[in-house]
Amino acid sequence: MACPHLESIGLTAPAPTQSVYREDCTQCFDSIDDAAGLDVCLQCFNGGCAGDRLHNKLHSIQRRHPLALNIRRTPKTVERDEPPAKMSKLAIAAEKEEDKYDTVLTPRCLECNVDLDVSDSRVANLVDAIMRANTFARKEEVKAWEQELTTCEHILLMQQSESRKIEQSDLSHCYACDLKENLWLCLDCGNLGCGRKQMGGLDGNSHALKHSDDSGHGVAVKLGSITPEGTADIYCYKCDDERVDDKLGEHLAHWGIVLAERQKTEQSLTEMQIEQNLKWDFSMTTEDGKELKPLYGPGLTGLKNLGNSCYLASIVQCLFDLPSFQQRYYRPNDDLPMVLDPATDLETQLRKMADGLLSGRYAKPDPTVHAESSVTHQRGLAPAMLKHLIGRGHEEFSTMRQQDALEFLQHMFKLVSRSEHTGEKQDPTRQFRFELEQRLQCLGCKKVRYSSDEQDSIFLNVPLRKMPAKEGAEGPDKYESITLEECLDLFTADESVELTCSSCGSKDGFSKRSLFKTFPEVLAVNARKMTVVNWVPIKVDVPVIVPDEPFSLDRYLSKGLQETEELLPEEAQAETPAFAPEPTALATLEAMGFPYNRCARALYATGNSDTNNAAEWLFSHMEDPDIDEPLVLGNAAPGGSEADPEKIESLGAMGFAAPVAKKALKETGGDMERAVDWLFSHPDDQGLMDEDEAPKTAKEPAGRADLPANFQLQSIVCHKGTSIHAGHYVAFIRKSLQTDSASNASWVLFNDEKVVEAHDADEMRKFAYVYFFKRV
């Protein structure tokens, strides 16, 4: 029977920028590897599962797109005569799918319920274009290991000083120390200095950086990385980034160095990064060498690593273990949202993730997964759509670089909180929110001020007490164990603040103390274990002893204003600093050795989010006369009280209501970029409303203050590596595992797609990066 839709619908091939969802369904994780396969819409290239869930027909009816290409594939038996070649650069080699799978392609009309002739010219070219197009997941995967380096203005406009021939003997060691490797040649003047200390043990004293700071010269080349072909590590200290020098041969010849005579003697930065990423792994065996037992079933589904997505996988696993996220997003009997583009709808993708992780539908052994072990693991779900959606528009999370898991958690909280769907149902992030109360007391007149901020996590600075090195011992420094209680005591301890009291005029300063005004249902804790080496923040392993049994936080609850205390006058309160530095960025800057006042000024000046920008601002404003003065803001925003209507309209196009857009612009002096950051930092703010627009009900308080407040560790995100922006993340989660006779509480390790019963959870608890404590 001829299909009338094929006659009437004009079909066009996907554009290069268009996503083709031809691997898994946009509304669930059913894929082309299932028996029924996947139907790819021939008009918009949405992917809909063709099995029992019938998301293909749902899309067809909703969009009136009846034509689809059904794709089904089965794995071939592949015999490898040789092991795969060792990866040597940050790139993904093109792997031919036909070498791995047998694929069956069937064009069909879902409305007429007929298969179409794949050789029909109207269909054949389109089918070929769909199969040749980069899939959505492949585009993300390719980005995972690619680093697109470019040149910069400092290279293009570089003026080299008077030419001279640098003798080989002068290229043997750093100008300021005896180091003979990790040497960087300044292309401006020919100075040779050692680089920064690198992950993996490569030594360095940052003398090349010191030379750049002292001379103002920006561009250097790593001497041992130069090849006769003209490739090398080029670094611009002014840009603080890797670069490409298209005229490297000419620039070296200026110093009498012949490119063709150079030989590469050291690893490049890229090679070192790959080597370190491959090293940071978590043991998948017991102490006696036995492989850990794989687990399958509901709540035990793994997530594929898309290259550098383990930070996302570990946080998502912990969140969807919690009742608030499960109840909000795992609703197998409810219809999915009726949206035109499911792949770009946050509600749909969170529902898809909940179904994938919790249903057990995909947690089964997959014999086609080739692992270097004798046990069979699961295939794992690829979180490409959720990752793209959460990262869209974000400077860091839109890239495929490794990220800070805690920063990702906070970003995800912001997106979920302001999602349009959370107005209808309970916001799952409210379980994390609580109020932290700050008490300021003038050391002169003893008057006090109380203020509180709503938060969804706390940052505990872990004391670093280095253990004496044993004679002849090698390897990283060892640190004394610290208890969680000691970290909490430090967090809530009194500290001094340099402020002038506007009530009594005393310059003695204030004492400041932070305590909980309320407690959340789930307390997220970030253990900051940072030190600074050559001005670079380095994460160190400090064992933090965390109890496995429930423990009390009662003594950290604020008692509030006491009868014997006298409040500071209102005008005095108005003169105290109103700016609240972003906690993660503040903690990082303070770990680098900067005082609080400098950190606050830098974050205020750079939008209160990006640590790198704030650090750059600090380095360029060290000589400011007021750099160490407390930041005091006036009542009026620099841009005036009235927000620009065009800017309000622009923010409205991004999904922000006019009242809150108006307030964001007022708070940030009309700066659009900072206004957007303010909006993400204040997801619950109602904004500036007219009287008739004001909300009729008071906002529900965050957390609760009733006692006892007992908490127990529920899950942890662990990290291996010397930087939170490199290395590897995994999650350990407390689960009830069903055995033959009973249900027992056990720790489960989620290491990407591998899900196993953990054997070293006690040890890993000491080195966790993010802890989730559940109120019990």
UniProtKB/TrEMBL annotation:
MF-aspect GO terms: cysteine-type deubiquitinase activity; zinc ion binding
Reactions listed under catalytic activity: Thiol-dependent hydrolysis of ester, thioester, amide, peptide and isopeptide bonds formed by the C-terminal Gly of ubiquitin (a 76-residue protein attached to proteins as an intracellular targeting signal)
Keywords assigned: Hydrolase, Metal-binding, Protease, Repeat, Thiol protease, Ubl conjugation pathway, Zinc, Zinc-finger
Gene3D superfamilies: Cysteine proteinases, DNA helicase RuvA subunit, C-terminal domain, Zinc/RING finger domain, C3HC4 (zinc finger)
Cross-referenced SUPFAM superfamilies: Cysteine proteinases, RING/U-box, UBA-like
Chain positions recorded as Zn(2+) binding sites: 174, 177, 194, 207
Organism superkingdom: Eukaryota
One family name in Pfam for this protein: zf-UBP
Residue stretches making up the USP domain: 301-776
InterPro entries: Papain-like_cys_pep_sf, Peptidase_C19, Peptidase_C19_UCH, UBA, UBA-like_sf, Ubiquitinyl_hydrolase, UBP13_Znf-UBP_var, USP
Family: Belongs to the peptidase C19 family.
Name of the featured protein: Ubiquitin carboxyl-terminal hydrolase
UniProt source species: Emericellopsis atlantica
